[in-house]
Amino acid sequence: MADNRPLSPHLGIYRWQITMTMSILHRATGVALAVGSIPLVWWLVAAGTGPEEYARVADFFHTGFGQFLLIGWIFSLYYHLCNGVRHLCWDAGWGFEIRTFYITGYVTWVAALILTAFTLWRAYGGAP
């Protein structure tokens, strides 16, 4: 008995778009923020435990892998924040035109990158 029902569309049918990327990345950065809370708690507990434990955590975050995690967490924070503001605008009924949708998507990317760069610049000895 043949099943002649149509198949649901899947990713192989759709052309890749910024809207798909932004939706996937919004979810991924939300997960990254949740997982990144574990090292944040580790750092806070170490700060309350004493100078030896705090020095151990600080040494970890000064390694290449630790720096990678920090930069990724900072970018995730800013991207999720900027894209969340974009979603709030949609909740208010603004930004559903296709052109606005794409412009705000690119603005979200640029703002997250600029905010990440500014934070890193300030953290590593930028101007006061």
Can I get a quick summary?
With 128 residues, this protein is mostly helical. Helix content is 76%, strand content 0%.
Explained architecture:
This protein has 128 residues and is mainly α. It is 76% helix and 0% strand. Helix 1 packs antiparallel against helix 2 (51-61), helix 1 (18-49) crosses helix 3 (64-91) and helix 3 packs antiparallel against helix 4. The N and C termini lie far apart (74 Å). The model has no long low-confidence stretch (mean pLDDT 91).
Keywords:
single chain; 4 helices; 128 residues; extended; mainly alpha
Number of helices: 4
In percent, how helical is the residue content? over 70%
What can be said about the biggest beta sheet? none
Q: What's the gyration radius in Å?
A: 20 Å
Order of helices and strands: HHHH
Structural class, from secondary structure content? mainly alpha
Query: What is the mean pLDDT?
Result: 91
Explain the layout of strands and helices.
Blueprint: H1 18-49, H2 51-61, H3 64-91, H4 98-123
